[in-house]
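hey can u check if this looks right to u? its 301 residues, i copy pasted from the old doc so theres a chance i mangled smth
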Amino acid sequence: MKTRFLFSIILFVALIFSFGSKAEITDGVAAVVNDEVIFLSDLKSHIQNSGENPLNKKVYYKYLRELVDIKLLEIQGGRMGIQATEERLDMVEKQLREKNGSKKFDEELKRSGVSLYRVRFGWKNQMLQEAITTIVLRNKVVITEKEILKRYISTYGEIQEENLVDLSIIVIDKSKVKDNQIKSIEENLRATTKIDSLINELLVSKQIEPPSGNLGSLNPKDLDEKIADAISSSKEGEVLGPFYSDNLVKFFVIGKRQYGDMNYIKNKDKVYETIYQEKSLALLDKWFQELRDNSYISIRI
């Protein structure tokens, strides 16, 4: 009797340890990020839904790093009041399906060989990164005129300064409008202080031709000699014309004058954006590394 009782106890204890061992294998802890736990089952699910074999332990650390990184973003985002919820992801997916068609959306997924889970995981990552980036970079990226000039010269070459003028052109087809309409357009051009708005209105009403609009900063010497001479002796805000060319009537509106390099003016914003992106990435890399360094991350596999 005692032997049978003792055997029952041993069997019961063995079953408890057996179940405990299996639970640890199935739902063990893969990593701890601050106070957040990433379970082994979460990792395996992430691997499988990403299109990999969850039994292949060679890929564990690659996908675990993804989960750790997004967990860090979620924790930091939570501190900033930023969330990338499933509802937001559902809304993004819904909008894309409505815009491109659900069938086409699914066909594109199939063609790319990327699972919907993987796409949504990317959206979540992007939402968190972009929102956090806006806060992290706020007023921290400073770019001077000297930096822009230095980068421009190293990319495009030395500055070639010229006398430039910001110019707008208005082109009228005489076969489409009457003489009194041309006169009315000219009067409006000379009277307005909002030349761009007027040109847009005239384009919408089809009283002037599509080439009309702002030409940007240019050297008058690159234009017809007669027009160039008129521009050279004109003042800012002045309307020049009419100039006749075949069946066309042209007016020019003189904008800001400046001394500089036309190519530099055209590419300045592009150079600025390049420098901004470089500085932003460097700052974000540093910030994210500091976030990792200052967080408690414990890998348990």
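Confidence is low (pLDDT under 50) at residues 1-25.
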